[in-house]
Amino acid sequence: MSAVNEISMMYRTRLLVCLLFVGAWVSTQTALAADAKVDRQRNVLFIISDDLTATALSCYGNTVCQTPNIDAIAAKGTRFTRAYCQGTYCGPSRASFMSGYYPHATGTLGYKNPRPQIGDRAMWSQHFKDNGYYAARVSKIFHMGVPGGVEIGGDGRDHNQYNGADDALSWTERFNSPGPEWKAPGDGETLESNPDGKRPVVGGNTFVVVEADGDDEVHSDGMTAAKVSELILTHRERNGDQPFWLGVGFVRPHVPFVAPRKYYPPFKPYSSMSLPGKVAGDWDDIPKAGINYKTSVNMKMDLRRQRKAVGGYYASVAFMDAQVGKVMSALKKSGMADNTIVIFTSDHGYHLGEHDFWAKVSLRDESAAVPLIISVPGKEPAVCHSLTELIDLYPTTAKLCGLEVPDRLQGKDISPLLDDSMLQVRDAAFSVAPMRKGFLLREDRWAYIQYREDASKGIELFDCKNDPKQYTNLADDPEHADLVAEFKVKLADKLRELRSNDL
Fold first, then answer.
1. Regarding beta strands 369-375 and 428-433, do their DSSP bridges make them parallel or antiparallel, or are they unpaired?
2. Going by C-beta distance under 8 Å and a sequence separation of 6 or more, which residues neighbour residue 94?
3. Radius of gyration over every alpha carbon of the chain, rounded to an integer in angstroms
4. How confident is the model at residue 502 (pLDDT cuts 50, 70, 90)?
5. Tens digit of pLDDT for each residue in 17-74?
6. Cβ–Cβ under 8 Å, residues 319 and 267
7. Are 212 and 220 in contact (CB under 8 A)?
8. What angle do CA 251, 256, 262 make, to 5 degrees?
9. H/E run at residue 389
């Protein structure tokens, strides 16, 4: 071969290598751009249960109440073990995570919508709607009274045509699911304030168990699952390639504990249900404000009724879990599962007899902590022990979907935890119980609870490393006086920080 031909071949080879390199680079950049586009267009499926304690879920360790459909979300996502609500009952909690502000920032401490306080600032789903998403809810996302606000015909009070404290600006469409609630035909018993058994089945925020006639879609959550499934399966037909933010609000296991009969057998006889351990003098070292509003004592529930309450609660959880399964089946069938972020949580936790406490409001872990599962396509499943808050969901999903994360939001972007579950995003979780002017700072080891901003109604301090069930209040222990003083300062600083906002 001549020298000229050798040089020519050398240049051709180099040119070919360069072209291959450029082609690979262009292909990579195209793929990255496509990935970024997918990130921006991810759907959000937000599923929230009402009054659900994490300890009732089998993916959180319950061996009696099996929740295979929620477990399946956890198996593909990140399950958070120390997530906390910002208000320990429905109204302030939901107003907080939907608005992106703490309850004491907006002053929304009851059962109202925070719209008057936040003005034209976008709520969570509204932020997505304003950025081209189809945003819809089915049933309870903002506060609705249960059972009255989701009861067919209502309870005689004004529940805004089943919309409750909803925010119309947050949705492209919204749908309600009124059901029979405590009036459902079946075998019912009022467990609360009914020691002689003569009280009929009643409505309101009352512990009632109804083993109901009929199938799932007779009841509110069954209707919700059916409507959500319809919206998912027809989304592309109705909305083309428009991404969605879809809120699914299940009302169970909120009282009344109503579920079709088929969900009860695993929890019967009710006498087989276990109750939390009882400790003599459990309330002796806590302030009066620390005794929950519903207790075994003031509800006049003997051990039989307490066990039936647990069984009824679990049946409601099992019913709700089955509805989650229907929604997830529809998502899979739609072909959109590989581009949809799925979140499962509750608005707060729930006592099932711990400390002889029942229901919500308390700032103990059973009431303030929530189940939280976030499943993002393409991310590995994990369990994360970082302290997190429900208020973090708004900025996190905005970041995951490539939207602007408004600086005004008071939550944190916890999306890094989905890539590295060993990270820590905060030193303490913060929650409030406005009904009793209570505040919680929950750190890794310590739970500090203060009643009133000047602590005039008492303090609780629990060493959750050595006392995980929170039986021994150390607030008056001289050895912990300096720690209590430090927490008082931390709480004052936290309240000052959250009140320093753009409202």
1. unpaired
2. 141, 142, 143, 347
3. 25
4. very high
5. 343 444 444 344 444 444 444 444 899 999 999 999 999 999 999 999 999 999 999 9
6. no
7. no
8. 85
9. strand 388-389
